[in-house]
Amino acid sequence: MTPLLLACPLSSACGTARRSRTPEEGAKMSGRGKRKSRSARQGCDAKRPQVAPLSSVPGDALAQDVERLYRLRMPPDFYHLWEFCGRRNPQSPQDALGEAGLRLVGPYDILAGRHRSAQNREPNYFLHWRYFYDPPELQTVLVVLGESQQHLGYYRDSPDDLPAFIGENEAAKGCQITQMGDNVFAAVLLLLERRRRRRRRRREPAGRKHNASLLPLEEELRTAAKALGYSLEQKSKGMKLRAKKVVAPTFHGAGIVVPVDKNDVGYRELPETDAALKRICQSIVDAGDDAERLKAFAPLQEMTTLVQFANDECDYGMGYELGVDLFCFGSHYLYKVVLQLLPLAYSLLKRSLFGEILEAHLSSRSRDTVDQLEQLCS
Prior knowledge:
Blueprint: H1 23-28, H2 61-70, H3 76-88, E1 102-104, H4 107-111, E2 138-144, E3 150-155, E4 165-170, E5 178-179, H5 184-202, H6 205-228, H7 237-245, E6 246-248, E7 256-257, H8 274-286, H9 290-296, H10 298-312, H11 317-329, H12 335-348, H13 352-363
Antiparallel strand pairs: 1-2, 2-3, 3-4, 4-5, 6-7
């Protein structure tokens, strides 16, 4: 496949000197209908709620290690949950939510000092607790003990931003990301409440007893969240504002956000619906031989060519969307195209760290062990 060409630099010229498309190109670009103006919807910024000041934890050397090793800023609720769990279980804060079948992982391993006992002093933290379908935007912080690989993590639209929300995924089932509030307190409570509703519907006697046993924990979480000023809604005000900026839902459902200017420059729709794109991907996977697979790749190659045109006109969101969709489909046959599309899109959007995470992930993408420290610790 022909590699994508580096697009024009970000400048005002992108909004005024747009190349005229041929009739054939115009027909291909209209697959998802007429583009809607998004600049007006992106006019207001989402604001996170005011929260109580932190204690000494963020100034701790371990907290500094978290942000240095992950190269991401952590939000206040990350540290507040650690303090909450430290009060519940001073000997092992990571297991303080064990009665609910939850464990604190990922960057919490750093707060617990696990990295200091690792034989390998430079493990790749981009891969630490990164599940098969986790896009670079998702950073796992909580896991649900069990076989479904259910986990919760911070979802960022840009590595320079604080998280937009908590995302939930069950890697054993697919790529879908469910939004679970804008802080970890809300996410845990929403998870427990959902479990309780399911058990009630099933009328499980053991379930009723288990639900009652978790009520004290739920009350503690609510009290702490209220004192800290956190929203417990599944869709907070900030998340609703973000939803207006989403240009495409993508296969994982959490949506992507890219800057769109007053001239509607920044994103253009793919020429295929999600269902049609999935059929194209499946035909590539199901091909019986190389010749058949090469033929099945033809529609995808056409789309990558259209992405080049879009990049030339600073509609960087098109390649971003296509790359995310192909990543979420999960087939190794698509990795080469993903690597052509996404690192470039992240670079053009000034989100290069996500490109580094993606490249590290695809180089060793696995459905197996996600705890990078487990094999390294002495």
